[in-house]
Write a structure and sequence with these properties.
The chain is mainly alpha-helical. 66% of the residues lie in helices and 3% in strands. The protein contains 21 helices and four strands. The strands form two sheets. A two-stranded antiparallel ribbon has the order 1-2. Strand 1 and strand 2 form a beta hairpin. It is globular. 37% of the residues are buried.
């Protein structure tokens, strides 16, 4: 396959219509250069508005609660109200959980989004763990009703976000991934036919599941789990829905990125004992390698697919470009490098895991993406992103060449530490869970 210039740097990996929101960050940064007293006054006003919205969540009228939740989302997108969150965390969480329990589909979708924003604003720690513990069973129950696709999408995204931030061990991540998978593979009983999920719903499941997979150490999977996951996503590549194909393709790229087929090869070849286990291991390895070849052929076809009647050109081009990147990765190990300008600094990704995380969080935050990337320290740690610093006088601090090397080099000790950051003590449980981790497949 010929090499393309986009292999080196895909600056426009995110949607092109996001450029305006990203470029607007410069004006946002200028507006923040006000005197400290004015900043303090504005913050008081914002907290007062949030207090009013929180009070409105106690109202009986559902439409009033929906408006309050919408206002809270807007406030969290425009700023990170740390003081309000610190003081009213438990109240806001429990009122949102009440909305999920008793509200309309619209209210449930809004409340789910608020809970996700709450977790992102707080960052890892005891409160994030509390959000996950308090929300998990309620979200799981709410996902069983598939009356409104927007509600299901919001619940899935919320579950992904709160697990990503609040999950402290592989068991918690596993549980959330299994809950997600039950949405794509519903089972109501031997004599009850489960409603078939729509392609859009399966796409959301795959995206949320892949987002959580980026936090999992590949060594916790056994070869059987990889077989099942690769087989399922391979079947999705044959579906008509392009968004579903792309989500499945990215999931497969991530699986091959973290799955380490060499590990299974060593296991199969390293055993001097000709036993049933060794033979099974060798068969599993051969099967996985065969699946990889099949997937590569499917993706090669999708990377050059001709447009059919009524085919949207933008969607077709997105599919071709994405699958070309994946084919190059499978053939040559070359991952797409992306760069997004935020407030004069570049946010770079160099792995499929980082790209999936970036696109998922960007989609979840919407209009609040730039603000959070500028000010949210948790997201700075996730991506190894260092925004322009400001001092009290409003003078911007630009990183020196040494600082950039320290913070941005993929090979720096600090960046490697950040790469491990999201595992959050999962490695402590690895030995106990090795070969046990369930990915949600194989129950069909």
């Amino acid at each position: 396959m010929g090499k393309r210039s986009s292999q080196k740097k895909n600056v426009a990996m995110l949607d092109s219509d996001d450029a305006s929101s990203v470029s607007s960050s410069s004006s946002t940064m200028q507006s923040e250069n006000m005197v400290f007293s004015n900043v303090e006054e504005v913050q008081v006003d914002k907290d007062s508005l949030l207090d009013q919205c929180l009070d409105a969540l106690y109202e009986k009228r559902g439409s009033t609660r929906e408006k309050a939740l919408s206002s809270i989302i807007e406030a969290f997108n425009n700023s990170l109200p740390h003081e309000f969150v610190e003081n009213k965390f438990a109240t806001l969480l429990h009122q949102c959980l009440n909305s999920i329990k008793k509200g309309s589909a619209k209210e449930i979708a809004l409340a789910s989004h608020v809970i996700g924003l709450l977790a992102l604003t707080i960052g890892p720690g005891e409160k994030a763990q509390e959000i996950l513990e308090e929300s998990l069973s309620l979200i799981s129950e709410a996902l069983k009703s598939r009356s409104e696709p927007s509600k299901i999408s919001s619940l899935l995204e919320c579950l992904a976000i709160i697990t990503f931030i609040g999950g402290e061990g592989p068991e918690e991540t596993e549980k959330s991934m299994q809950i997600m998978w039950q949405v794509a593979h519903p089972k109501l009983g031997p004599n009850v036919a489960a409603a078939k999920p729509s392609p859009a719903m399966i796409t959301t499941v795959v995206s949320a599941w892949s987002f959580l997979l980026t936090t999992v150490d590949g060594g916790t999977f056994n070869s059987k789990s990889w077989q099942e996951s690769i087989s399922y996503f391979s079947s999705l590549l044959d579906k008509e829905d392009r968004s579903l194909r792309i989500a499945a393709g990215e999931a497969l790229a991530l699986i091959f990125e973290i799955g380490s087929l060499d590990k299974f090869s060593a296991e199969a070849k390293g055993s001097s004992d000709i036993s049933t286990d060794a033979e099974n291991g060798q068969r599993q390895l051969v099967h996985i390698q065969g699946l990889r070849t099949k997937v590569l052929n499917q993706m090669s076809d999708l990377s050059v697919e001709a447009g059919g009647k009524g085919s949207a050109k933008k969607d077709l081009n997105n599919q071709r470009n994405r699958f070309r990147d994946i084919v190059e990765f499978l053939e040559d190990g070359r991952t797409p490098e992306t760069s997004v300008k935020i407030g004069g600094e570049s946010l770079n990704t160099t792995t499929w895991a980082q790209l999936i995380q970036l696109n998922f969080l960007k989609h979840f935050l919407g209009g609040g993406f730039v603000k959070h990337m500028q000010e949210n320290e948790f997201l700075h740690d996730v991506f190894g992103f260092m925004p322009k610093k400001k001092i009290a006088s409003g003078v911007e601090h630009r990183m020196s060449g040494g600082e950039k090397r320290m913070y941005k080099s993929p090979n720096s000790a600090l960046n490697k530490a950040r790469t491990q950051f999201l595992n959050k003590q999962r490695m402590l449980s690895q030995d106990k869970n090795a070969g046990h981790y369930a990915v949600g497949f194989g129950d069909e």
